[in-house]
Design goal:
Elements lengths: L11 E2 L1 H5 L2 E2 L2 E6 L2 E4 L1 H6 L8 H5 L18 E3 L6 E3 L32 E5 L3 E8 L5 E7 L4 H8 L9 E5 L2 E2 L15 H6 L10 E6 L7
Parallel strand pairs: 1-7, 8-12
Antiparallel strand pairs: 2-3, 3-4, 4-7, 5-6, 8-9, 10-11, 10-12
């Protein structure tokens, strides 16, 4: 009997994570909710190539405005001189965008990087949020920015850099054990950012706290 393949969950990134990759030797961009690592493209082409300049200018930034959300392709317009449909690149033509006219050195069979899944590393979070993770064993507290789409198990992976034994703890909120396979909202951990913004209050005033209890030191109620 043929086994069904389980679809791997995409990895989610915060805008600040993407922004950290902002050099020619480590260049990420995001667009239309996707995150792409274009570092290999930078190494494949000579430094100073004019087609790389727009990408370097927007390294670590969101470039969704360059693309049509319906076609997922670069925006087009009617060229004022030729009256033909051509790509619209007000920041300058960039890598894999064809020239306006015929060129003998243009390879039309190249898959443009924005359609090449090899460069895609994950998804851009539509909503990030802050949480406090408190280790009840050591009283250490860590403030984390996480993606609202992430499960608790994925948030745990973020926290491992601060506590390599985080898997040995039970995670709780308001005294209730959290389901690590579900998101914060699915675990009824409130997100009051919108209400706080409307009230012009600092979101740090009501940052949800997740309490970690070492499994060998749990007390039953």
């Amino acid at each position: 009997m043929e086994m069904k393949k389980t679809r791997e969950r995409p990895r989610f990134y915060t805008p600040s994570q993407v922004a950290a990759h902002n050099t020619a030797s480590d260049l990420w961009v995001s667009f239309l909710g996707r995150v792409y690592d274009l570092t290999p493209l930078m190494t494949q082409h000579e430094a100073g190539d004019a087609l790389l300049l727009p990408l370097m200018e927007f390294a670590g930034k969101d470039i969704s405005s360059w693309f049509d959300p319906d076609t997922k392709d670069v925006l087009t317009h009617i060229h004022p001189l030729t009256n033909c449909v051509s790509y619209y690149t007000p920041r300058g033509r960039f890598l894999h965008v064809p020239p306006a006219g015929p060129h003998s050195d243009w390879a039309s069979d190249v898959i443009p990087w924005w359609k090449d899944k090899r460069y895609e590393v994950g998804r851009l979070s539509t909503k990030t949020r802050w949480i406090r993770v408190i280790n009840t064993l050591t009283s250490q507290e860590q403030l984390l920015e996480v993606c609202s789409e992430e499960t608790l198990a994925e948030i745990l992976q973020r926290y491992l850099r601060y506590n390599s034994h985080a898997c040995s703890y039970t995670w709780k909120h308001n005294g209730v054990s959290l389901d690590m396979s579900r998101t914060l909202s699915d675990n009824s951990v409130p997100d009051d950012d919108l209400q706080l913004q409307q009230l012009r209050l600092d979101h740090n005033l009501l940052t949800p706290a997740l309490l970690l209890y070492f499994n060998d030191d749990l007390t039953e109620g």
